[in-house]
Amino acid sequence: MPLKQMKLHRLKMRLNNPFTTSFGSVQEKEFFISEVIDGDGNRGFGESVAFASPWYTEETVETSLHVIENFLIKILQENDIQYPDDVTQLFSSVKRNNMAKATLEGAIWDLYAKRENIPLSKAIGGMKQEIDVGISIGIQPTIKDLLKTIEHYVQEGYKRMKIKIKPGHDVNVLREVRKHFPNTPIMADANSAYTLEDAEHLKQLDNLGLMMIEQPLKDDEILDHAKLQEELNTPICLDESIHSLTDAKMAIQLGACKIINIKIGRVGGITEAKRIHDYCRKHDIPVWCGGMLEAGVGRAHNIALTTLSQFVMPGDTAGSSHYWEQDIIQPEVSVKNGVIKVPDQPGIGYEVDEEALKKFTVDLKTYDL
Ligand SMILES: O=C(O)CCC(=O)c1ccccc1C(=O)O
Ligand SMILES: [Mg+2]
């Protein structure tokens, strides 16, 4: 692929509502839109997902920029890319920093699909024309607020409700939720807030009919997750623990989880996400696509990934308007009855709205490739 230039648009956008997890709240979001341009004037887009502080993984907006500018761009300048999969191999000389890598790799995948004149979903081997999505609900000020919020999203048709939990705000809350919504598919996400010593307490979740509990323990506690899964009937789903196919293999073979949440940024790009997907498919492990409060470009990548066959559970890719007053793509991502229609235009299948992009841009850097 004749890559000519990479642009890094730094955007600042404000979420409609603060999003609260066991680790704190996010409302202002700074991130990068990567734009790779070829010799024929095609443009591919990617989006970075690291937050301002390293609460989710060790990466931040600033570490992403540091790694992209000083290492990853050089690799693209010094090597020819035949196929997007090459990028993962080339970037492997840089350890971890997966979100930085995925920022550039995603743009190259979009460019590749546009050059081939096919949707990104087809370029990666996806077959679905529609995908099912659920919604992730942050910690609310009161149980009453939470119940009202859930009611709203049940009415909108989202396919499952993900409720954030933390110590002191878990079994009690979920019991109440289950009482009001006896038949709604519900899951919980702890974002690493517990230790194995909480096993007895977490066992109380077993009679609430949850689809799964996501990431109860620390990201590197794969062994402890295996011990916890032995105690729990509720399936464990891993999020923060899975940075690579190697992590996924270890987690599955040790019995640390029964379900995996795949996030493109966390695993270093679409190619690695596909490899994890393929392994899970072979081993009958259901997967679903997680979210990082993305703007439209990242959302479009998640939609394409979710068209792969082993994404058998609703993901976190809610509609644009749930997050943003104005998104940066046209049309915005819309969800009807918990379903997104997969776009059939080339590449990510949504147009980047140049005016919106400009409006939210606080810095722009250009690198010749
Ligand atoms: O709606 C979304 O994009 C996902 C929301 C979410 O749960 C989340 C948001 C930011 C960081 C981590 C997580 C998570 O899945 O743990
Ligand atoms: Mg999670």
UniProtKB/TrEMBL annotation:
Record field: catalytic activity? (1R,6R)-6-hydroxy-2-succinyl-cyclohexa-2,4-diene-1-carboxylate = 2-succinylbenzoate + H2O
Record EC number: 4.2.1.113
Q: Which UniProt keywords apply?
A: Lyase, Magnesium, Menaquinone biosynthesis, Metal-binding
Task: Respond yes or no to whether keyword Magnesium is given for this record.
Answer: yes
Q: An example of a Gene Ontology BP annotation on this entry? A: menaquinone biosynthetic process
Task: Check the record and name the PANTHER family matching this protein.
Answer: O-SUCCINYLBENZOATE SYNTHASE, O-SUCCINYLBENZOATE SYNTHASE-RELATED
Name of the protein this chain belongs to: o-succinylbenzoate synthase
Which pathway is this protein engaged in?
Quinol/quinone metabolism; menaquinone biosynthesis; Quinol/quinone metabolism; 1,4-dihydroxy-2-naphthoate biosynthesis; 1,4-dihydroxy-2-naphthoate from chorismate: step 4/7
Q: Which organism is it from?
A: Salinibacillus xinjiangensis
What InterPro entries does the database record attribute to this sequence? Enolase-like_C_sf, Enolase-like_N, Enolase_C-like, Mandelate_racemase_C, Mandelate_racemase_N_dom, MenC, OSBS/NAAAR
Q: Specify which residues bind Mg(2+) according to the UniProt entry for this protein.
A: D189, E214, D239
All copies of domain Mandelate racemase/muconate lactonizing enzyme C-terminal, residue ranges: 143-235
**A single Gene Ontology molecular function, please?**
magnesium ion binding
Q: Name one Pfam family in it.
A: MR_MLE_C
Q: Which family does it belong to?
A: Belongs to the mandelate racemase/muconate lactonizing enzyme family. MenC type 2 subfamily.
* Described purpose of this protein according to its UniProt entry: Converts 2-succinyl-6-hydroxy-2,4-cyclohexadiene-1-carboxylate (SHCHC) to 2-succinylbenzoate (OSB).
In which domain of life is the source organism classified? Bacteria
Which cofactors, by name? a divalent metal cation
Does this UniProt record's set of keywords contain Glycosyltransferase?
no
Spell out the catalytic residues: K164 (proton donor), K263 (proton acceptor)
